[in-house]
## 1
Amino acid sequence: MASITPTATEPHAGTVWLILVPINSGNHAPGMYLELPLDEIPRFTKRPLKFLRYLGYVILNQEGVVSGTRNEPVGDDDHLVNRAVYAFATTNRCMPFFLVPSK
Amino acid sequence: MYAILSRSEQVKPELKASCLAFSPERMVNLAALSMYDSRHSQTESQSGSQHRSSSVKEELSCRDGDDVFRMVPSLEDDLWNSQAAHIIPHARGDKIRQPRLAGFLPISVSFQWMKLIVQSRPQEVDDDLQDLENINDIRNEFLASPALNGAMSRATCSVMVVSILNSKDVLFDLMDDSY
């Protein structure tokens, strides 16, 4: 169900990617993504996009939002698109920096 | 707290039930995994697998007592049926493998999930895990029943540690229709 660090450049047919740690092409730092077979996902959930958010949450232990291939926002009730690349970005609940009192 | 992902058809019903039931005392036990004293983790060495499995299991049984998802205390005989299971799978471990293809340059393939996951989780939660690099570190393992361990080996089930503080509602909200 899972895969890591691309030798591939895009998802195989019948799968989607969920990027958990973005690949940094600048310094070649490894990234991490899950390659999820579309036909497996209905075994887990009826709301696949919400399930991706759940996966991001339990793996990274933080809340976050999922965006689509072109960085567009996606909703919990949307359908998965074959070979799409979704990204999980954590939502930081800290105070905005301008509200942090200066030392 | 643990969140369990399971493929419902392939995990035994009773296993699924115990995975989804979080009893208060077990929660303490599970939380102890991520708070486990890092001194103990250093005793694990890169020794042979035979030696590893027995010493690791002793350490795990000291900490976990038994399969952490078992809801009723087991008989002493059953205890040693429990197996040491990896949270982040061994195959996804801590090494960078460089498979060589004949006639081609080696291709670097990283399997360093451990480091990436630890680095990507909030430090205030996983405070004592920043030195966690070895996939066989006891902090990446827990005692599981053979059924659960088997399901994890077949990648039909996985376990992740999630902090309890402030996040119980979030987790249950996300889980509500995930099974």
Note: The helical segments of chain A are 48-60.
## 2
Amino acid sequence: MGKTVNDQDRIDAEAVDWLAAIDCGTADRAAFERWRRDDPAHALAFIRASQIGRSLDLLRDAGLAERRMPSAENNRSADTPRSINRRRALKFGAAGAFVLGAAGVGLSVAAAAQDAQTAVGERRRIVVGRGVVVDLNTNSHIRWHQRGGSVDIRLLKGEVLLEREPGGIPCSIQCQGVQIESAVGRLDARLRDHRVEVAVLHGEATVRSPAAGDVTRVASLQRTALAADTRPVLSDMTRIEAAATQAWQRGEVQFDGENLPDAVAEYNRYLSRPLVIEDRSIDRIRLGGRFSTSDPSDFLKALSVIYGVRVNETADSIRLSRA
Amino acid sequence: MSWLRPVDIWFSEQVLPHEAHYLRTARRWSRGRDEALDLVQEAYLKLLLHDDWRAIRDPRRYTVTTIRNLVLQRIRRSRIVAITDIPAHDVADIYDEGPSVFDIVAGREALLGLLDDVERLAPVCRRVIRMRKFEDLPPREIARRLGISLSTVETHLARGMRQLMQMRRAAFPADPAFRPSKDDEDERLASR
């Protein structure tokens, strides 16, 4: 049977004490682990407390927290950068670790030459240098090293979101002979079919391919796809496209009118049990919406309910056909 | 390094988001709010102790099945639970519909509800929570700005988070799908 209300209150109090101590850097890891191991109810209370912390972060990131902050009371002094609430702020140390951990993203701090990979469906966040954070999307691989106060990242597979905060060390991404230099801001780089897709979500970047020779500037909300033998062609992104590009960071995949084969291909990047279209007559379905990268059940339900697609789940795949 | 273990991350991403659904299901199979909360809590603890949690293909459905098994176990073990209280076909049939639009809206509303909860915190806790979470200031910086010690910041953070946790727990039955209708309650009382 469960705990009494008093037991639960005590456990909740202990969980938030640990959370605050971790956040303030005063927690003793061994003692914490003992407490957590002691009773699964402790682990559960800690998960719940962490999740409230994570939800508060989400409110900030979504800009919802700002609206209700009365200016007279918000204590924001002139030296606090306004932008800190406007974008996902970089977080370091134990505080960052618990916040990011709650989001299902591991955090590690890197030193010299390093290598990091993610499996299908996995995401990972790595601090590659002072003020530079890389998020690895599903099935991705990077290698990086610091040299003379800057960091060089090699994108070998998959997709990364690179964020360089003000004061962060210079950084560049090399991929398929293409070089991307990031100014302060956030960009997404994805290796797809021997081409590199670069989307600047905030700030700016420069790209250079051997074919172009010279450097091309990519401004905020612009993107380009280039390979070793092609020149970059820039296009503008809408806010919706920019949000869709980085949706994976929130564990979501976002569609806006893609046809079914494209949507399925995109979804399959995250799934260990892939979706398979068995019937070409459903290829022309176009769909929109936001879905969980780890759980395609909403997506399948939408296909089934809205488009009458038959979903047949087998041990190694999920097969889609006309009902 | 995160202080959350892989099982915790899995649990918070795959199991907890469907909490409203578990509570609704457990409510259908139990005689009251407290018993439903208790069943869900017990199922959670079983999941957290599950050695092979990685092999669970559909955590949401697995949780519902765990709750159902707990209900059946309780029926078998105790004669206190009259069999008429729980529709047998309902427990036997674990048809588990997908997350409804309600669940998605409820998730969003819970998030906004949390914002209201922050507003209801005691002034000092509210100020510290806002500075830490909404302005993303490091604890040491908060201590400096408010002219208090780091350990006082820690105390206010813990106190604020604890109040938020209590408010969240109290908000569970506010979920209209979880709250049984008056007729439903009357019927159950009459059957005792």
Note: Chain B is about 70% helix and 0% strand.
